[in-house]
């Protein structure tokens, strides 16, 4: 009976297509344990455990949680990571990268924080008479609001034929320095530098009594000065400044109508 069965199998096996997708060596290899494989190639073992270790230890940065708790705007974590990596890879001065990192970690010296440490006389913004939190100083106060509107209108003019889009995304591209796919890497570097220089100035003037006297004329002239300063910073590292040159020419067109950016 057995011999008969072997004969039948021998007879029909030539009619089947052989499965040679996996070689004999690969087949044998698949039965080896990772430990056995790592004798000849230690990186196999290391890579495998690196992945396990990385996945087990991943947890989101605490600032995401505290922002949710305090009801503070934050972009999607993946989008933030993409933008953050691009900023770190850019040739922007380390000082401004560190500033952005501090903003992300919520350790910037806002006026409110200085007051709580006993280093400022009051916690309120001298211009708006509300608590001067980091978000207020960086985004909600009069000057950052003016500057972010000017940049949003310029971005809509440049990328959307002046149709309103970026004007509704100010918190995202200005407060969180988010990357949008319309930007080339060079444009994003220039835009990020400009926004970080503006925000650095905002934190500094929040503690300066002069902010009380600032009018739209000051906002407009400060925006020009900061843009020129950013262009100079880019020139110093031999980086193109075409995007910021265009922005400067754009805002200068409105020198007789400075309320346009309100
Ligand atoms: Zn204010």
Poorly predicted segments: none
| Largest sheet properties | none
* Each distinct ligand: zinc ion
Shape field: elongated
Helical percentage = 55-70%
Going by helix content, strand content and strand pairing, the class is mainly alpha
Backbone CA Rg: 29 Å
Give, in order, the helices and strands: HHHHHHHHHHHHHH
Estimate the mean pLDDT confidence. Answer: 89
Roughly what fraction of the amino acids lie in strands?
under 5%
Key features of this structure:
mainly alpha; binds zinc ion; elongated
Walk me through the structure.
The protein has 262 residues and is mainly α. The chain folds into two domains: 28-58; 72-261, no CATH class. It contains 14 helices and no strands. The protein has helices at residues 2-13, 24-29, 34-40, 42-57, 62-70, 77-89, 94-105, 111-116, 134-140, 142-159, 170-175, 185-205, 216-236, 242-252. The model has no long low-confidence stretch (mean pLDDT 89). The structure holds zinc ion. Zinc ion (ZN) binds at residues 125, 127-128, 136, 141-142.
Outline of this structure?
The protein is mainly α and 262 residues long. The chain has helices at 2-13, 24-29, 34-40, 42-57, 62-70, 77-89, 94-105, 111-116, 134-140, 142-159, 170-175, 185-205, 216-236, 242-252.
Secondary structure layout plus pairing:
Layout: H1 2-13, H2 24-29, H3 34-40, H4 42-57, H5 62-70, H6 77-89, H7 94-105, H8 111-116, H9 134-140, H10 142-159, H11 170-175, H12 185-205, H13 216-236, H14 242-252
Helix pairs in contact: 3-4, 7-12, 9-10, 9-12, 10-12, 10-13, 12-13, 13-14
The chain binds zinc ion.
